[in-house]
Amino acid sequence: MNQSIEVKVPDIGDFSAVPVIEICVKVGDTVAAEDSLITLESDKATMDVPSPAAGVVKEIRVGLGDRVSEGTVIAIIEAVATASAAPAEVEKAAPAAPVAPAAASVAVTIAPKAAPQPIPAPVAPPAATLGNTHASPSVRLFARELGVDLSRVPATGPKGRIVKEDVTQFVKGVMSGAVAGAAGGASLGGGLDLLPWPKVDFEKFGPVDVQPLSRIKKISGQNLARNWVMVPAVTYHEDADITELEAFRVALNKENEKSSEKTGSKVTMLAFIIKACELALKKFPEFNSSLDGDNLVLKKYFHIAFAADTPNGLVVPVVKNVDQKSVSQIAVECGELAKKARDGKLGPADMTGACFTISSVGGIGGTYFSPIVNAPEVAILGVSKSVMKPVWNGQEFVLRLILPLSLSADHRVIDGALATRFNVHVAQLLADMRRALV
Ligand code: COA
């Protein structure tokens, strides 16, 4: 004969008035013994309350967010008449058995003492699921059965919890090709299998101020992280002797100040560097390319981006068709784009279509650095502060203005010899722009 069982919250240790954060079943569901009925979450642990017997859910006596303590009736199960579990036994509980400990919250299953089946031994999930994923043991078990790495599943449950439906949706996405494979994404091979981000209570060590990241920082951060991980880049350093070029630039700007047609805009070193890079892109077309699967897309246009520092973070506006513009025009356009960037007024058209990027920190300082390739571009030139240095000319040391160049290039497209040739060419052009004419 079928038997109605009142399922009560068992002994949950020191906890009381613990909120219900997930209801795993609905009235009419058929459950097996040990299936999770509800999940509770204290500030220290997540706990599933399993069904004591196989049967049908007749009533659910709690709602999401309700607070429950030991003895609270959570559901009525009509048990199929095979189990030896008596209602009286159900109320007593064995200590919790840990399953799938997580960094931020510990998940435990509370098993009735007289449960008809033994508690399964704790099974450690793959390392990647041990991160900051919040999911009940039943969901973790479900994910494990399907081989799903929970750290890759977007959560829709309360407090960022992953619910069973999220896992189902994720699997559907993988099957339809909308989501990269569970192993970590086709392009990432076996996945990075990284440790979770360290969670530190900094206030334990001293006062702190928590500020949300700006929108720009969040977006650029994601791009930078992807590029850092996915582009096998090497950085090549070179020194450019810009003694004459700087003297010429200063003279030009002085002339411009005196001229009746003065435009009010200065010719900058950045504009000369952009021009030199355009000429080097023409000489070494692999630098003006992008990888697209097994193809290399070689571009016939010359759009060069430059990194601009703004109060909200880094943005990368693009000077289009630099091959059709003079150095002065490029300088004016850089000035306008940099102002737009600082005023937060750059539109998508201002920031797309680049072939190559220049990151100049020369106005600030620095010697050399290692810029991150701005994918799908294949190279980026970092520029640091020019300084007067003694240089041996074969007979004596002479003081020259030296500009440090740091070129990072994607080794899948550009090998070290080619990168060095590019760097040397840029340096030669900056040393003597007459080379642009020959
Ligand atoms: N060496 C020495 N001095 C340099 C120099 C260099 N490589 N580059 C610029 N300067 C000097 C300029 O001549 C100028 O001096 P002046 O006022 O006496 O003429 C001064 O530094 C300021 O130049 P700046 O305003 O930086 O102009 P710019 O055309 O060189 O650069 C931007 C424009 C937009 C690139 C710049 O404002 C900027 O944002 N730089 C930071 C980019 C960044 O954060 N990159 C890192 C990305 S991770």
Describe the structure.
The chain has 438 residues and is an alpha+beta fold. Helix content is 24%, strand content 25%. It has eight helices and 23 strands. The chain has helices at residues 87-90, 137-146, 164-176, 215-230, 243-258, 269-283, 327-342, 416-431, and strands at residues 3-8, 18-23, 30-31, 36-41, 45-50, 55-60, 67-68, 73-79, 97-98, 106-109, 134-135, 161-162, 233-241, 289-292, 295-298, 304-306, 308-310, 313-315, 318-319, 356-360, 379-383, 387-392, 397-410. Strands 13, 16, 19, 20, 21, 22 and 23 form a seven-stranded mixed β-sheet that branches. α6 (269-283) packs across α8. The longest helix has 16 residues, at 215-230. Mean pLDDT is 83; it is low at 83-131 and 181-188. Bound molecules: coenzyme A (COA).
